[in-house]
Amino acid sequence: MSQNNFELILCIVNAGYSQNVMEAARSAGARGGTIVRGRGSANPEAEEFFNITIQPDKELVFILVSTKIKDTVLKAVYKNSGLPTEGQGIAFSLPVERTTLIKQEIEELTEGE
Fold it and tell me: Is the dihedral of CA 34, 23, 70, 103 positive or negative?
């Protein structure tokens, strides 16, 4: 199995809180991200389980990071915009098998590994 150098962090927050996610991610070493507007749905059991009211208007934040800073970025995002905050965000990461970044960008993102 090949080693992945990158992870895609996905964060789903209430509308209006994506900039908080990006500020936290940048403070932890991320360089940027993509924000997409969306609409969520949930059943009453999910609201009761998480003890929150689920707002339907969402923003999805996609952040590509080096594997070595993934945990740091995830922790910063959760602290700033996680479920206990007004953003009520959830975040997770997925391994990225291939990228089309140019060689210089890859070297910059993976320095010190």
Answer: positive
